[in-house]
Amino acid sequence: MALFGRRKKAAPTPEVEEAPAILPEPPAPNADGLRDWQAQREWVLDQIEPLPPFGMQVIDALRLSLCEDIEADISLPGFDNSAMDGYAVQAADTWNASEKAPSVLAVVGEIAAGTVADRALAPGTAMKIMTGAPMPEGADAVVQYELTDRGTEDVQIFAQVEQGKNIRSKGSDISEGEHLLSAGLQIDSRTVGLLAGVGIDKVLVRPRPRVVVISTGSELVEPGLPLDDNGQLYDSNSYMLAAAAKAAGAQVFRVGVVGDDEEAMANTISDQLVRADLIVTSGGISQGDWDVVKAVAPSLGLVDFTQVAMQPGKPQGFGLIGEDRIPMLMLPGNPVSSFVSFEVFVRPVIRKLMGVQPLYRQPIRAVTNTIVRSSPGRAQFLRGEVRTDPGGRHTVDLIGGPGSHLLGSLQKSNALVVLDADTEVIPAGHTVTTWMLTDD
Ligand SMILES: Nc1nc2c(c(=O)[nH]1)N[C@H]1C(S)=C(S)[C@@H](COP(=O)(O)OP(=O)(O)OC[C@H]3O[C@@H](n4cnc5c(N)ncnc54)[C@H](O)[C@@H]3O)O[C@H]1N2
Ligand code: MOO
Questions:
Q1: Protein residue with its CA nearest to atom 9 in ligand 1
Q2: For 18-75, what is each residue's pLDDT tens digit?
Q3: Helix, strand, coil shares of the chain as percentages rounded to 5?
Q4: Which SS3 state, helix, strand or coil, does residue 288 take?
Q5: Tens digits of per-residue pLDDT, 190-236?
Q6: Cβ atoms of 396 and 386 closer than 8 Å
Q7: Residue 332 CA, ligand 1 centroid: distance in Å
Q8: 297, 323, 354: which is the final residue of a domain?
Q9: Which ranges are annotated Basic residues under compositional bias (predicted)?
Q10: Distance from the CA of 402 to the center of ligand 2, in angstroms?
Q11: Residue 390 sits in a domain of what CATH number?
Q12: Greater confidence, 117 or 17?
């Protein structure tokens, strides 16, 4: 039984916790002043709480995490019914029936799906019955039309059927009271079907996180508008990050470009807090003279800017912003750096907010088709194309170079190749770790 069928309202919201006054101690940097990417990811995730459960229509709960145990209130099928269009009979009346020597039974009624017989079936008689219609009392088998002459007053039956033939018995799929689903399950289309099948219209789930995406940089132009000749380029990051967040299950608000203006940036972030479970920014966090996010974020909440031993994605920012301490991930502006940072930090945060497991991409080992070189000191997230041969063996080719502006080769890739910070060279034919970049 789902919560809504029984209790009509959600569990009381948990008490609001006191907002933290400082961020917890971040991971210690290495000798080069860089943090380990996995330690940084854990540190960020430790500060993220799954969203409180919410009651939703089952169709809207697709891909969300169930927050209640569900048991069946009814059996499925709910009654014995026919699996075929044909005649409900007593099996004994068909014994020894054949094409040459058919059994002949009087047809005494018709049962369509959604109706019931007006009497019990007596020996020597048959009732027409349609697929899904309830079996009449007294009948213990169904003879499909193809084994009869389809008679309307009398019917000739050309084959013997055993007891139970073509009957779908009550509870043969699900029995009343049976435990169906456990809290924590991520709802898929089959689960939606099962919930609806047992009559449940609403369930308690963790809602889609509302993710606000902001990009920064006075050089950026909204796609669709003309570029001038003064070093402008299109804002690809806010679109890419919004799409990636949506694919990860979020409800996305793409704010788009804010120029390198501190007041405008501070106002934009503050204005967005009201509809955000997470804010993601791109750009303006490195060492530049107009790194606006880095400049204003400290005035808005608790923030931490650091450098992580990964390439791309070295500069990273994290904060808990405003009175409600809304998490904010501040990503570097280079498009590939932004995307890789999304994969490493933002996607797991979205999944934690949603309460779905696993938080991380499941690593797949793939054999390199060529030598892979890496500059040691930073973990590498290279773009690759993984192919799977018919035997299930994965191979990978690197796509494009390591440059973090290479949007074209990012699009051509279907995986990230993840190398440890101390890796220098991997000969062709050896295996590497890859993350498949599927949009789910
Ligand atoms: N002196 C140093 N300079 C830089 C360092 C460093 O350590 N010392 N780190 C470099 C690395 S690594 C990265 S990554 C970038 C990150 O810089 P920012 O996060 O401040 O990003 P921006 O400077 O705003 O932009 C970098 C680059 O990306 C383009 N960009 C920005 N936003 C978008 C967008 N929405 N769509 C498309 N392209 C975007 C921007 O035009 C720049 O070309 O810093 C290095 N510098
Ligand atoms: O970290 Mo930057 O992201 O190497 O280009």
A1: 286
A2: 777 899 999 999 999 999 999 999 999 999 999 999 999 999 999 999 999 999 999 9
A3: 20, 30, 50
A4: coil
A5: 999 999 999 999 999 999 999 999 999 999 999 999 999 889 999 99
A6: yes
A7: 6
A8: 354
A9: 1-10
A10: 9
A11: 2.40.340.10
A12: 117
- Between strands 431-436 and 379-388, the pairing is unpaired
Report d(CA 73, CA 93) in Å as an integer: 37
Please give the distance of CA 304 from its chain centroid, rounded to a whole number.
Answer: 30
> How many domains in the chain?
3
For a ligand 1 pocket test, name from 334, 336, 404 the mutation site with the most ligand atoms within 8 angstroms of its C-beta. Answer: 334
Query: 237, 223, 221: which is closest to 333 by C-alpha?
Result: 237
Identify whether residues 348 and 373 lie together within a single domain.
no
Q: Does the CB atom of residue 103 touch ligand 2 within 6 A?
A: no
The residues lining ligand 1, judged by C-beta closer than 6 Å to any ligand atom, are: 215, 217, 219-220, 233, 235-238, 282-288, 291, 312, 314-315, 332-335, 337, 404
Interval between CA 403 and ligand 1 midpoint (Å): 12
- Ligand 2 binding pocket includes 134 (Cβ within 6 Å): no
What's the CA-to-centroid distance between 339 and ligand 2, angstroms?
11
For position 7, what pLDDT does the model report?
44
Question: Which residue segment(s) compose the domain that 416 sits in?
Answer: 363-436
Instruction: Among 37, 305, 314, name the best residue to mutate to test ligand 2's pocket (greatest count of ligand atoms within 8 A of Cβ).
Output: 314
- Distance from the CA of 355 to the center of ligand 1, in angstroms? 32
Q: Per DSSP, what are the bridge partners of residue 103?
A: 157
Instruction: Give me ligand 1 centre to Cα 313, in Å.
Output: 10
In degrees rounded to 5, what are phi and psi of residue 88? -80, 130
301 and 374 co-located in one domain: no
Q: Are residues 325 and 393 in the same domain?
A: no
Q: Do residues 251 and 263 touch, judged by C-beta distance below 8 A?
A: no
Kindly identify the ligand whose nearest atom is closest to the C-alpha of 294.
1
Output phi, psi for 243, to 5 deg: -65, -40
Of the listed ligands, the closest to the CA of 309 is: 2
Sheet of 154-157, strands arranged across: 141-144, 86-89, 125-129, 103-111, 154-157
Tell me how many helices (H) and strands (E) the chain has. 9, 27
Pocket test residue of 334, 343, 407 for ligand 2, highest count of atoms within 8 A of CB: 334
CATH of the domain at 121: 2.170.190.11
Question: Is 56 in contact with 64 (CB distance < 8 Å)?
Answer: yes
In this structure, are residues 254 and 237 in contact, taking their beta carbons and an 8 Å threshold?
A: no
Do 255 and 336 fall into the same domain?
yes
Ligand 1 mean position to 311 CA, how many Å?
13
Which helix (H) or strand (E) segment is 194 a member of? helix 189-197
